[in-house]
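anyone else get weird line breaks when pasting these?? whatever heres mine. first is seq + tokens for prot A
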Amino acid sequence: MPLSPHTRLGPYEIVSAIGAGGMGEVYRARDSRLNRDVAVKVLPALFSCDASRLHRFEQEARAAASLNHPNILAVHDIGQQDGSPYIVSELLDGATLRELLRPGPLAVRKALDYAQQMARGLAAAHDKGIVHRDLKPENVFVTNDGRAKILDFGLAKLTRTETGEDSQGLTQTVESDPGAVLGTVGYMSPEQVRGKPADARSDLFSFGVILHEMLSGKRAFYGESAAETMSAIVRDEPPELTGTNRSVPPALERIVRHCLEKNPNERFHSAHDLAFDLESVTAISATSTTLPIKARNRWVRTVMVGALALAAAGVVAWRIWAPPSVAQPEFRRLTFRRGSIRMARFAPDGQTIFYGAAWDGKPVEAFTMQYEASDSRPLGVAAQVLSISPNEEVALLLNPRVWNFVQTGTLALMPLRGGAPREVLDGVQFAEWSRDGKAMAVVRFSVASGASWIEYPAGKTIYRGSAWIGHLRMSPDGTLFAFDQHIHNGDDGYVVIIDRDGNKKFTSQMFTSLQGLAWRPDAREVWFTAAPRGAARALYAVNMRGQQRLVLRAPGALVLQDIASSGRVLLTNDNARKQMFALIEGDTTERNVSWLDWSVLQVLSEDGKEVLFTEGGEAEQTYRLYLRRLDGSLPKRIVNGYWGDLSPDGRWVVAQDATTPAQFVLVPTGTGESRQITHDNLTHLYPRFLPDGRAIVFVAATPAGVVRMYYQTLDGGKPVAITSEGSGGYPSLITLSPDGAYVIAPVPTGDSYAMYPVRGGPPRTVPGLSTSEAVINWSADGNYLFTYTRGEVPARIYRVEITSGKRQLFKVTSPPDLAGVEDVTNLHITRDGRSYAYTCPTILSDLYVVDGLR
């Protein structure tokens, strides 16, 4: 039954109906929480009658929500009302591609534009491992400002019985025209018709069918029945485009043909390659419009057009059948010592370079060198280099303290030609000079919330991030800022561009690793170093329209540091890994208990015999939780996810899953069934079991990014807030008393900790503690807290008396090789103090100048 205005679906109030189709009814609704209009698609109630189908719907909807790209419909929320599931997305004004095609074919220019946008959207989804499987004109929407958006990612699966073959129960939306069978059937790939699994190449075939229809106005594959249409897809070639539209360049027709190869191996290898070739045709077409048109006769014009078409065909044919062209850059290595380099900048002359490095296990120090020289000169100050002003003044970060991926310290200014640094501002993470050198933008960081914010000028907040922010850079014309926005405690993130008032202008796709960013000198693109999967960062470029391209790929993990006005690039190549070390009761030396290249400790069991840890680097390509006994046994893979905790009896792991927003699942370490234990719109982080194993405490963020701590029983209970809003931080901050009555957490404002009653009540401040240190466990007798100061190597573990705040040094630890080590993280100690374990991030950097990139 259609919903009437003012009907409520959770926090959404129906305003009016928009349309209806085979997948349900769509309404305009008002989100009362964020005061915005959204689109709500209410699916038929029959979907909720099939538990497996409903579960697939939830999985696919969460996967779709993880796609953050301007050419993909943004999914905000999912829910159920009166047995009918619904999905909430951004509200669009415009028309579907099907509606735009009703009058006939599109102009070549418009078809190319929409095709490029669709290809970029597909590339972003495929990079996440998400395949659409039901691409058709009904699932492409064009907004009034010309933005093409792909709809219903993942919902294609919901309409199938999915007994193992991808062709089971395919949707067959039939047009009202007599004899015209279309819908999904007309856009299926040959492998879908044959009942074989569909991957990203299947989407490229469907894309080719749509592009053919945009250019010709006719279906590429047509039959009087669904069976005849499927037969045509498998056996027939589509009609020649030039037979219906003579304005289609032969180069563009070759692209369509390449998409429509029957054998998936003969199609484009990726949507990125497809987008590149479409852009090549656009570039050639743009060139053709600028050619002289005052030719003396028709013969000259014909020769010119023919030559241009041949050139276009040659360029695209070479792209399709020959290996892709690669840049031939020239590399000059500048540093040769063992250690890490976090920040480096060109001086205004483009020849002098300033950088901060921690060489050979020593503290960070600022250096300068000339491009043609082979040695560096220390500036005599323990600092990172942040930014260089046009007035030849360098901004430094004095005595930086490391918080995993984040460094904070005191902002200071120093003349390039020497002199003592002048301290300006405490608690700074990044700083960037304005183009006239008269003002500075700064990034600051809160330990309590784990989030950063941008001030411009210093003292005026213009943007607040949901987690930490990196590599703030101002555009060459001084009107925009670009930076990388990250998740809590990880370098997964996306590129964001804002104006000087903090208004968002662009957001890129999500990357599993993103570090390093700079504007191209002509401001046409932002260049950045990132990895769509794993940790092997490459150099990419993106413009304000979301067009992304690969600039440079090299072995290792690249970090873009700066681009000179000449186009010369400064970057580091990092060999980065995370290792785990443990001291077990009875041993006198620590053991290296790492597994692959990115071993991050989650918890050490209270008997000191097991570690739960995450792997998520280049070896795994995604986050997975492992459990390992410290008797030399091989690790056991538990579940995909990042954050987790081991139950007191060792039989269960509570883990963050890979959905969006992230939920918690309970997974057995032996036999048993896994089950999801949270079902809400919170992003769940840092779980910890209570000592009785019947409940958990965790940190979570609301859709608006508000962080706080919660308590929840494992028997289907609802989350109950423990702390006030804004209190969260890092997993080591979640420390429970031996009886499970109290949890230690930072106070949202100020520099202190408090004991919060888990089941409600006023907090009690713990004397003698600062948020610069991490609380890592509670002693067995309940009288002491174990802490260590973040960002210090060696790490010093203290035992602090709860009532008085008095402390004594308990242990000192560090890895055997300190080169490239800036921090000891995720340190955990047993309540009896006899065993401990920690993660040691190590980065060995080489600094390069690169010429010839474009």
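and prot B, same format (seq, then tokens)
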Amino acid sequence: MEAPFAAWIDRDVVRASGPDTAAFLQGQLSQDVSSLAVGASTWSLLLQPAGKVDAWLRVARTSDVSYELDVDTGWGEAVTARLRRFLLRTKCELELAPAQRVLAVRGTEVDGGRSVVWPGTVGSDLFAADDDNRVRDVPIVDAASYERARIRAGVPALGRELTERTIPVEAGQWLIDASVSFTKGCYTGQELVARVDARGGNAPRPVRGLLAAVGAFAEGSELRDVDDKVIGAITSAAGDVALAPLPRTVDIGARVRAGDVDATVVPLPMT
């Protein structure tokens, strides 16, 4: 596990409140949120009826009848619109709040922070923490350093590793373990998740790590195998590390090429 660090990030926030809110979200999200204690948080998938990803988000219960859903910046509007399509004769109000500034702490957990799911490390996200003495001794890094750490951990981002074409298991079994309840009952998109899990969780295009031999990756670059066949494209890049969904036939250790950069497919999280 790397030394603790923190970075300022933005998260979009959707507030849901009303007497039917718990039951409504329970039927829309992959995680068991009705049993979530007030003040607690967990991660969940918001899926299309066919089971592909609309969003990966965190759910925090703020009272018996209210929740906050926070998601990658720029995705709050899409989450709100998706939930409203299923909001029929339900006493639940949805509000897209202004984006919130969050102190993302990695490498250590902080009391009162919201849950973080990063393979290979622990962490907490502190909301409204402009002057927080709880992390006084944790160094603050810039956005580029945070992005590099995200990529090395293999944490997917919406619009990059997670799109409307992604099935959840492609992001990694760890994400399924953290975001899906297999005992809660029915929710939108459940069938595909349950079917893939029953078949052993084989993903057709799992997210893989890439390490450059020399040079830096460019996001969007085509990836080619040793036979010069196009096998995918880089979805996130930070210098000599990158992420890309690749066919499951591409093994860890395989040699690939992104533009003029030679690379190796490596396990996630990257050590």
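btw re prot B: The mean pLDDT is 95. The domain at 207-266 is CATH 2.40.30.110 (Elongation Factor Tu (Ef-tu); domain 3).
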